[in-house]
Amino acid sequence: MKSNGAIDEMKTRIHQPDFEVGQFDGFVLGGDVGGTNTNIGVAGVKDGKAALLYSAHFESRGLSSLVPAIREALDYGMDRYGIEVDRGVVGVAGPVTDPRRAKPTNLPWTVDAGDIKKEFGFEEFRIENDFQILGRGIESLKKADLFYAKAGNPALGDGRAVIGAGTGLGKAILVYGGKRYRPIPSEGGHADFPVQDQFDLDLADFIRGGRKAPASYEDLLSGLGIERIYDFLREKRGGGTDVTAEIEGAEDKAAAISKRRTTDPLCRETFAVYAGCFGRCAKNFVLESVATGGLYIAGGIAAKNREIFVMPEFSNEFLNAEKQRQILERTPVYVITNYDVSIIGACNAAVEPSD
Q1: What is the mean pLDDT of residues 201-207?
Q2: Does 108 fall in a domain?
Q3: What is the pLDDT at residue 186?
Q4: Hey, which residues does 43 pair with through a beta bridge?
Q5: How many helices (H) and strands (E) does the chain have?
Q6: Is residue 81 situated within a structural domain?
Q7: Residue 72 Cα distances to 7, 144, 207, angstroms
Q8: Which domain holds residue 84?
Q9: Residue 176 domain-assigned (yes or no)
Q10: Are 319 and 346 within one domain?
Q11: pLDDT tens digits for 308-326?
Q12: 157-192, pLDDT tens digit by residue?
């Protein structure tokens, strides 16, 4: 059954090919609403733990609201497995000050938990910040889900930090509560980019254009940030290269720059600048949160370009601190390579009581 055209956009993935409905105590829904993609997962619950069974994936701008996506995901589970879901949590990319209603920063529609709860007869449904639910998924990750970019010396109970770039830039702090880590949301991705020299000032002014607001970390570290750095360097260097026309004509310009980052000098320089800016942002966040338990870097840009986090431009900036360098040296850095960490975290949140 089609629901407002959403089925034409839905892609599904099976995470547990062999299971029996009766082996679980119940089922929960977890979602992640981003500016580019909306992902819905359904998990089985056993002994208080969630096991992701299948997930449905949509282009966010192809949806009129979250309701059609949830309906398609639930219909799929009912038709294929006979699954009935009784509770859910979704993460929304943007500030969430009310667990009942939130507006994604880069989408024209609002997520209303009350409407969704009523529409599907859920016992409970709530909203959290997208990086808050991502933080809830970290403890479910395996070694194979992580790229180890920097070694460290974490201790039990040390704080952790999560940062990730995609359509925007998100952050969260993880505080240990004795049994599990509790995620604290942040809008630090919109913090001002700290200028250190003339190059930084010229870059910030280029990004600002004519606007009065200062350049932010998100302006530099999002997908659009890669494009802006490339355009700035192209203008500064007085022209393009042999692949500039190809990049300018690409549907996803940032991906095209990434593709050429090891062969084209302008693309290589773009990612060197990007790595340095990311290292500075990561350093400041680790110091602000004392996240000696680990910095976890999420998002499609990081997963597809994980090598930049072992580049000297990143590590030199990350360790560039006069007084508290020992904190940074103790902190391991991981790149999350499991795309499903957010919906896993949302399903975990649906099992856990709200904080």
Answers
A1: 96
A2: yes
A3: 86
A4: 28, 52
A5: 13, 14
A6: yes
A7: 6, 31, 40
A8: 6-138+340-351
A9: no
A10: no
A11: 999 999 999 999 999 999 9
A12: 999 999 999 888 999 999 998 888 999 988 899 999
